[in-house]
Structure formats: structure tokens, C-alpha cells
Amino acid sequence: MKKIALITGATSGIGQAIARRLAKEGYDLIITGRRAEKLEALAKELSAEAKVLPLVFDIRHLDEVQKNLGNLPEEWKNIDVLVNNAGLAAGLEPLQEGLIDDWERMIDTNVKGLLYVSRTILPGMIARKKGHVFNLGSIAGKETYLNGNVYCASKHAVDSLSRSMRMECLPYNVKVTQICPGAVETEFSMVRFHGDQQRADNVYKGFTPLKGEDIADLVAYCVNLPAHVCLNDIVVMPTAQANSGLFHKVL
Known about the structure:
By secondary structure, this protein is an alpha/beta fold. It contains eight helices and seven strands. It has a single domain (4-236), classed as Rossmann fold.
């Protein structure tokens, strides 16, 4: 029987790349996201390699998480790998100028959504004494940068939750890996800047950022490690990035 991986936020970027890579690694996939058309297209693309269950819902809403993930068909219940990937940044203003709607989107997705999904899936892993949870953090969860305030706070929460989960899952043989990337060229900046294409493009000018596939490679490496080996915490950066704010750009 093939192993099962659940990936949130699989409609684009890192989540989509992880779904493609885990299909190649022999996993059947549960993929979630809010955009039905993109999710169905990915499910169709991967159907030649894996069985795929696409679930369209918003992880910010507990009732939707419970409805979709708390009542999985029997053949999909034994999830081996959970990838808490769904997340976003919205806005880049000082706190006193921040938009409350942006704050709520980030906290509800990056923190509460991760909690809702983990709370629903972890009991099964613990009962089976088997599983691997990946939390997609950020360098913003290790440091704080100017005007990053609430986004950085949300990713610091992911860092803290990953540490707690690791301790609490320890007696049950469930691995917990946090992956904290630097700059990855995805829809991230378009979302952050509310669709401002020029401003988003400027973020990645003058250097080679990471790609979603780079993060997918790390997940694939980790799931193929021996049972007694776990990479707890991975910080991965473009070669041209030293920390959250220092880049070597050639413009």
C-alpha cells in the first residue's frame, strides 16, 4: 500500500512543488487549497503517478477543516506525511499603519490554520505511532525585519509551535521538521503587495532566489531518511542572501 501525504496550500508555489515531488516519490496525495480550478488541474496532472484527493476549503475556518479532514474516506485516513504549507504575508507597513484585515489573514492562516489542521491529523499519527509533520516556517520566524511585524510574529509562532509539537510527539515516534526558507520566488510577494506586479518583481531582481522545487527537494530528502533520523529544523537561503534583510544583488 502506498503512503499518503497531505499538503495544504497546494495550488501554487512551494505546496504545488511538494505535491509534484512527493507524487514522484511514490505517495498518494491529499491536496488542499481555496482555488478549485488550480487544485483540480494539479490533481489531473498528477493522476498518472498517484491517487489524488483534492479538497477545496479554507484552513482559516475550523468548521471547514473538520468537515473536510475530520471525515476522510477510510482509504485516506492513515496519513503518513502532513505538510503544513499554507501561509502568506500581507502588507509591509509599520505597525501604526498596518491594515487590520492583513493582520487577521496572516494570523488566521499562518497560525490558526496550522493549528486546526494539525489538531485534526495528529491524533491519527499518534494512535498509529507513525508519521512525519512538516511545518513551513520562514527566516522571518528566526529574525525580525523592518515592517515585517505581524508576519514575523506569525512565523515566530510557527517556530515555537514546531518546538512544542516535537516534544509532545516524541513518545509516539512522530517526526516534526520545520523548514525555514529565505527568499523563494512564488506568488508570495504578489500576495504581500496586493497584486502590485512591479513591486513584487523588484523583490527578486539582481539575484537568484530559491524556487519551490528547492524546498520540495528538502521534503523528499527528509521523508527518505532512516526511521531513526530526523532533521528537526532547516534554514535554507539563496546563496545571495545572508539573513532576513541582507542580499548581494547585482543590478
